[in-house]
Q: What sequence folds into this?
């Protein structure tokens, strides 16, 4: 009962994506019906021509009916072609809408949502699973309409010829239904498991494609191949297991029909001898039986497609039904007054399960326009700390305020537009430099871009490329160096003209001199912008008003360079470790 | 391996592609395929026999029995003849069903094997492709080969091929029957069906184009999704969601269009060929009637026409069945076409023949020993790695692997247009630490890419222990080079497994020792499951710095004579770095090390510092010397600290 209910919900959710292709989806079965009707009509006309025309040598009649026959054929082809087109349109449109809806949903996902599915899982759902559903949808609006009509008309004809003998079908039918049910029950869970393994295979693939430099430099090609082939083989095994049963389906149908045919011959022969039936009736009975057999084979094919696509459909709905973790509140604040930031007793941990918080009781107030440096050891929570500001994650306890109001009270887009963040792991996308910069501001003019790039010290090297700002950046920016990537990312962030700018260790691959120029440029360009700079280089913090030292998820010290140097042990150690290099 | 030829705008139906696909099917399954072939023939015979089933039943049994019943009453009819005939037919049908089960199951197994083999071959080949392939292909598109394109082949192999074989057999059997019955009528049927096949082939060819386009659109879409999901943080930070949706929709629309066109053509095929078949059928009736009535041809009787029509129907059915398969064939070929393109990508060249082997020192001589023996004497100083160099004159020389790297006038360009390195010459003696310093984009990483042969030099020479690196087998060359990159890539698996990646035979203790060396032990111990903590999605739960520490441990466990550290510590804070540095120092001891770093403190104690600018080495020397020189290095160095 529950199962059928959840099925209903699933189907409803899926069909919600048909939208503008409703017309084609309805048109297709209607056209198919037309096609089938014509098809049924054709042999009827042929018989008429032979019986009334040729037998009676009525050439006029032959020509008249011949023309009608031709017309019917043309209509039949037209219906067939149109329904084929409508079905193609309906199913590919439906698939398009499904992908659109999934991608849209995806964009509202938080990171924990994405982690749940993994990139590889999301990709298979968007392509393979949608293709499966598309196939079965096309089948439903086309063949699944055609087959029952054929089946029913053939059955009716059988009953019309001889009711008692047609009852034999009633013996065969339950056997078939039960068999189909068991096939479905058995194969479906295996397909679900197989799809999970396909996700796994995709994961291995993705790691290899992305980490090929590591694989190659450790000469682990064979090791990786082994990993891949073992997943690949387990996919094969599951697929064989499930299909073994599915492929028994059509012989089973054949078997049932053949038995029915033999039964009919036996009983039919007796009936004919007793004069209760004619030979002609028996032979047309067989013709219809063949039609029934064909229809049943088609049905078993449809069942196979649906078994596979049901597993896929569920996976699609899982994405569509996933609730994004981070959502907008009811009454949105439409404006951010200034760039002040307040952390009030903030606790944070990445997963609710973990007992140990990543940030503990963080209390901090930053004025608008202030430049704050953040320093701390690897894994101390610096990055987690700043990611709370543009709500990449939400606090576990306490609250983060921007412009005096809780970040959760703002429109998500507003807060992210006003807080620019240059991430530690810089990502550029395949496209030209210009296109990448436009991420910051789609309306940016060339002058804006050049200005931002000058501040980020990127203009010079962009100018050295033969195609300048139109230089094509490969995926992940693999054709620019780490430092160039970082500077492009900074320029991209500056183009947003934000109230708050966060640099998360984003100049680590830039040399110190350039780094200093970037810092200086930013201060001159936008003195009112609040700046948070995470860094490991004390030299980068020269222009910071205050420096925060974070250790183990807690604030260990706040103050100016001099104050910290005097009072804070960690800061002093960091300073010494860098100074030592300089003194010797 | 089939011969490699380069064709532009190759049609997916090129003979070469078809052959290659078939060789996958036939390759390892010759015996099974013979069984399938025989089964299909048997099944086809049963099918043809079941066509005459009714005729036999009526003519041989019912009619005589009816006659008998008419003469001597229904009670006297003996049904035993009919019963035994029905039993016989029943057995025949059973055989038919059984062979059907047999070949369907075999083909199912074969098709799954083929898919696995294709996937495995692709992966094996992909692992051999040069790094440049991965740099220039969308990752998601590459992944699409393994799922969408392989899937496209599946139906064709599982059901398409048997359908083709059985159709061809049925067509031939019926054709023979038709010729025997009346050759005069067969000719128009042949002409008609040729036209039909040509027509269908034409449309099929047209739709092939759209199937190819569909597979390519899926690949492009896959690529886009992969990139966007991986860069999700950036997407969010820049509130790029709406624009991402728009760009996605554009690609989605393209896919929808090509998929619609491809499917429309595919869907039209069946009704079209059906009605052509019907026209043919009617035509036979008319021509037969005409021949019988107008020309008075004695061979053409009404009975012959009736039987001939039956055969025509049986002849046309498989033809239209075949045309129904065109969809699947087109799709399969479109997928295969892309798959073969990947398989034809030129693999990394490796003409190296110098290998790295274990040797035992016996005085001045090096004697090759088995790896087992070397393993047993792991601690011993007498057992060393050596280059085994077979010469053209048939002699062998062994050179100890020391880590002496020399570059002579090396030039390089990534794309053949823009030169990135000019005249780079340097000599790193064993145990020496060489640092590359310079502005971003000066070419520092590129030099290391050349030493491990991710890319090959355009001009000049690189020698490793005096051997031209082109002569060294790539796998052995890379084994001898440890590398830690700025972008750390970790793999799904436990922390321990990730460290062991550097040396698969390392024990847990060795891995932990390496982690201690890299100073990763402390934080790993604090993880919920310690070394057994499973990392997913490139270790997203870890900080960038922690990931780097694991990467350093991974390199440490490999224990190579030469190390390349490309910004290895850039994400580690200086205090931790100072601690790591101690470990690193002991790690670097006795090894040749190439260091790339921006923090000059990391670089300072290198024996030689190379200052790079625009692809050239402009200054070189020790720290003191360069400082006193007062050049670029001096500027950089003082620039770094003038801020204090």
A:
């Amino acid at each position: 009962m529950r199962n059928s209910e959840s099925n209903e919900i699933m189907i409803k959710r899926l069909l919600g994506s048909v939208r503008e292709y409703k017309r084609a989806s309805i048109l297709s079965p209607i056209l198919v019906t037309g096609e089938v009707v014509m098809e049924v009509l054709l042999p009827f006309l042929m018989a008429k021509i032979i019986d009334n025309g040729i037998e009676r040598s009525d050439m006029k009649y032959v020509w008249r009916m011949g023309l009608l026959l031709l017309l019917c054929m043309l209509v039949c082809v037209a219906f067939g072609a149109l329904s084929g087109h409508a079905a193609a349109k309906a199913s590919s449109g439906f698939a398009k809408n499904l992908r659109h809806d999934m991608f849209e949903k995806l964009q509202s996902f938080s990171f924990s949502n994405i982690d749940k599915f993994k990139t590889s899982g999301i990709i298979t759902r968007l392509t393979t699973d949608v293709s499966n559903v598309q196939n079965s949808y096309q089948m439903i609006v086309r063949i699944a309409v055609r087959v029952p009509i054929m089946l029913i008309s053939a059955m009716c004809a059988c009953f019309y010829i001889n009711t008692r003998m047609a009852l034999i079908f009633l013996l065969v039918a339950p056997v078939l239904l039960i068999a189909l049910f068991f096939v479905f029950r058995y194969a479906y869970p295996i397909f679900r498991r197989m799809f999970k393994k396909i996700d796994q295979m995709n994961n291995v693939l993705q790691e290899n494609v992305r980490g090929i430099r590591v694989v190659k430099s450790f000469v682990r090609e064979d090791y990786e191949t082994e990993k891949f082939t073992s997943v690949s083989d387990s996919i094969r095994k599951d697929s064989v297991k499930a299909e073994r049963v599915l492929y028994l389906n059509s012989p089973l149908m054949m078997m049932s029909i053949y038995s029915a045919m033999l039964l009919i011959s036996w009983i039919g022969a007796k009936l004919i001898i007793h004069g209760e039936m004619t030979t002609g009736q028996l032979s047309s009975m067989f013709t219809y039986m063949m039609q029934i057999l064909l229809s049943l084979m088609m049905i078993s094919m449809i069942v196979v497609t649906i078994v596979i696509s049901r597993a896929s459909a569920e996976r699609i709905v899982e994405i569509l039904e996933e609730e994004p973790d981070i959502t907008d509140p009811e009454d949105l604040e439409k404006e951010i007054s200034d760039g002040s930031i307040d952390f009030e007793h903030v606790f944070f941990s990445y997963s609710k399960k973990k007992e140990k918080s990543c940030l503990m009781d963080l209390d901090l107030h930053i004025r608008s326009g202030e430049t704050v440096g953040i320093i701390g050891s690897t894994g101390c929570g610096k990055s987690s700390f700043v990611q709370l500001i543009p709500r990449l994650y939400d606090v576990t306890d306490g609250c983060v305020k921007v412009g005096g109001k809780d970040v959760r009270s703002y429109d998500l887009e507003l807060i992210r537009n006003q807080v620019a963040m240059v991430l530690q792991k810089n990502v550029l996308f395949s496209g030209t430099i210009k296109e990448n910069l436009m991420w910051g501001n789609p309306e940016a003019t060339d002058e804006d871009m050049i200005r931002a790039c000058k501040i980020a010290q990127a203009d010079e090297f962009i100018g050295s490329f033969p195609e300048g700002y139109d230089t094509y950046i490969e995926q992940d920016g693999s054709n620019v160096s780490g430092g160039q990537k970082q500077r492009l990312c900074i320029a991209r962030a500056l183009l947003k003209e934000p109230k708050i700018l966060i640099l998360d260790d984003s100049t680590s691959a830039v040399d110190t001199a350039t780094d200093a120029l970037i810092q200086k440029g930013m201060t001159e360009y936008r003195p009112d912008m609040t700046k948070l700079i995470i860094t490991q280089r004390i030299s980068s913090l020269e222009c910071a008003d205050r420096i925060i030292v974070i250790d183990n998820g807690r604030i260990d010290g706040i103050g100016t360079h001099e104050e910290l140097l005097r009072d804070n042990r960690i800061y002093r150690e960091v300073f010494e470790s860098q100074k030592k290099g300089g003194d010797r | 391996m089939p011969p490699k030829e380069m064709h532009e705008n190759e049609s997916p139906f090129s003979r070469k592609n078809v052959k290659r696909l078939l060789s996958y099917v036939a390759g390892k399954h010759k015996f099974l395929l013979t069984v399938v072939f025989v089964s299909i023939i048997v099944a086809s015979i049963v099918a043809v026999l079941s066509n005459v089933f009714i005729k036999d039943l009526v003519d041989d049994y019912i009619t005589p029995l009816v006659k008998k019943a008419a003469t001597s009453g229904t009670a006297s009819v003996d049904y035993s003849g009919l019963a035994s005939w029905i039993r016989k037919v029943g057995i025949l049908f059973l055989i038919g069903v059984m062979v059907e089960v047999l070949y369907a199951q075999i083909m199912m197994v074969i098709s799954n094997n083929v898919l696995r083999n294709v996937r495995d071959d692709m992966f094996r080949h992909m692992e051999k492709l040069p790094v440049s392939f991965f740099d220039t292909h969308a990752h998601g598109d590459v992944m699409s080969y393994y799922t969408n394109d392989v899937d496209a082949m599946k139906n064709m192999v599982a059901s398409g091929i048997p359908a083709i074989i059985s159709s061809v057999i049925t067509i031939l059997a019926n054709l023979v029957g038709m010729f025997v019955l009346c050759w005069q009528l067969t000719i128009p049927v042949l002409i008609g069906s040729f036209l039909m096949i040509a027509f269908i082939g034409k449309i099929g060819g047209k739709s092939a184009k759209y199937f190819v386009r569909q597979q390519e659109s899926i690949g492009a879409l896959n690529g886009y999704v992969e990139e966007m999901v991986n860069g999700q943080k950036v997407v969010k930070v820049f509130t790029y969601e709406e624009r991402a949706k728009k760009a996605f929709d554009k690609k989605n629309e393209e896919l929808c269009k090509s998929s619609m066109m491809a499917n429309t053509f595919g869907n039209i095929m069946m009704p079209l060929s059906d009605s052509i078949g019907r026209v043919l059928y009617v035509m036979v009736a008319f021509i037969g009637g005409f021949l019988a009535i107008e020309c008075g041809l004695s061979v053409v009787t009404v009975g012959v026409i009736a039987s001939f029509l039956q055969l025509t129907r049986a002849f046309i059915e498989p033809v239209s069945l075949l045309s129904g398969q065109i969809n699947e064939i087109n799709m399969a070929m479109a997928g295969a076409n892309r798959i073969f393109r990947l398989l034809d990508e030129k693999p990394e060249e490796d003409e190296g023949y110098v290998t790295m082997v274990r040797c035992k020192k016996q005085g001045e001589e090096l004697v090759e020993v088995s790896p087992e023996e070397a393993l047993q004497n792991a601690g011993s100083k007498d057992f060393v790695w050596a280059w085994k160099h077979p010469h053209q004159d048939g002699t062998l020389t062994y050179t100890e692997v020391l880590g002496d790297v020399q570059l002579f006038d090396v030039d390089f360009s990534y794309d053949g247009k823009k030169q990135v390195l000019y005249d780079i010459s340097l000599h790193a003696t064993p145990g020496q630490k060489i640092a590359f310093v310079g502005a971003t984009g000066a070419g520092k990483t590129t030099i290391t890419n050349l030493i491990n042969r991710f890319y090959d030099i355009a001009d000049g020479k690189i020698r490793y222990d005096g051997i031209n690196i082109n002569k060294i087998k790539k796998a052995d060359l890379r084994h001898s080079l440890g590398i830690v990159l700025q972008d750390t890539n970790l793999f799904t698996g436990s922390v321990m497994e990730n460290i062991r990646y550097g040396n698969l035979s390392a024990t847990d203790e060795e891995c932990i020792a390496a982690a201690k060396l890299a100073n990763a032990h402390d934080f790993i111990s604090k993880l919920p499951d310690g070394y057994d903590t499973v990392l997913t999605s490139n270790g997203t739960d870890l900080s960038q710095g922690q990931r780097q520490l694991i990467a350093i441990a991974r390199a440490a466990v490999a224990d190579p004579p030469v190390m390349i550290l490309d910004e290895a510590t850039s994400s580690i804070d200086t205090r931790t770095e100072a601690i790591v540095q101690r470990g690193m120092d002991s790690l670097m001891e006795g090894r040749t090390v190439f260091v790339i770093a921006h923090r000059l403190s990391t670089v300072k104690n290198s024996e030689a510092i190379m200052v790079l600018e625009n692809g050239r080495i402009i200054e070189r020397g020790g720290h003191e010397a360069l400082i006193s020189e007062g050049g670029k290095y001096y500027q950089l160095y003082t620039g770094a600290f003038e801020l204090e």
